[in-house]
Each structure stands twice: as structure tokens, then as C-alpha cells.
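Researcher: Structure prediction, please.
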Amino acid sequence: MTDQNNTSSSLHPDSLISDLARSFDAVGVLIAHVRPDQWSASTPCTNWTVRALVDHMIGMNRVFIALLVGQALPQRPAADHVEHDPVGAYRDTAAALLSAFTAPGVLDREYQGPLGSATGAERLQIRLYDLLAHGWDLARATGQRAELPDDVAERSLAFARIHVSEQTRPGRFGPAQDIDDQASAIERLVAFLGRPVETPR
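Model: Predicted structure follows.
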């Protein structure tokens, strides 16, 4: 997956870690403000409720932790699995993943995953655009304002445009959606990743 045009090459490691930390914090605020009656609400992710969406974000944190520390990837939870403390589980797994990414040499090392080889820096940015997109999904599903870091979304969009190809979309993302160039970075990111976005005219 390494590419000479990869945006990770132009970003300082501390900037990448800061981008992920800020995004984890912003999404964590959204999760903390989910009302009890909203956990069963539908989301822009087909067939996923708010509960399933948050469980997915927690699960992906665990997958990336295992990948970085050389453990076996956790098995996919059963369809009826629910996190009993989603706010706490999200907070704990986010902190653990940040810690894993800050270990010496992690961002430069190559890691093998289901979609091939990628450096730790690339893995971080893959986690980042997925996290931001699901943060937007959560905000849309729960009627919250998606106060996600716009500058991080802009960088994530640039990375995704390089690394998300038509060949890798099936089963992960829908076709890129049309959107006004003047839309916010997070809206342009999620539209690129297949979400229909209604923007004010």
C-alpha cells in the first residue's frame, strides 16, 4: 500500500497521533451523548443500529490493537453481541490504540492485513477515515451536531482518495456520491466513502 504520493510521508508522526487523538475525543463526545432511547435507532450504515455502529467502532479499535502488537485478530462478535458499557469500552480501546501507535517504530513498520501490506502510519490513517465517517454516521443517526475536526477530515479525504479504489470498495464502501465542492470536509469525506449527503442549497 505504500505510495510515494502517500500523504503520510508529509505528516510528522506527532501530527498523525494528534489527529487520531482529537478524532477519538470528538467521536467519544458523540457516543457519550447518545440517549437511552436512541441505541436502537437506524443509521446511515445499512442494517446497523446505533448500538451496532458503536460496537463496530470498539471492535475495530481492538482489531487494530491486535495487528500492531502482533496478536491474533479477535474473532468477529456474534450478531447479537452488545457492549454492556459502550462509552467505557470505546474510551478504553481508543486509549489502548493510541498507546499502541505511539510505541517506538510502529508508524514506520510494515504490517500485513486482510487488504495487504501497509505501514503503521498508513494503518493509522485507515483507522482515522473510518472513525470520522462513523462519527458522522452516529451524529446523523442521533441528531447531534457532527463537531469533528475539519482539518483532520480534509487530510483523511486526501489519503482516502489515494487508497480507496473501485476495486477495494465492494463490501466496504458504496460508490462515491456527488457533493458540492463547498461542502465541509467531513461531508466530502463521507460522500467519497459512499454516504448520500444532503447539503443546504
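Model: Confidence is low (pLDDT under 50) at residues 1-9.
Researcher: Thanks, that helps.
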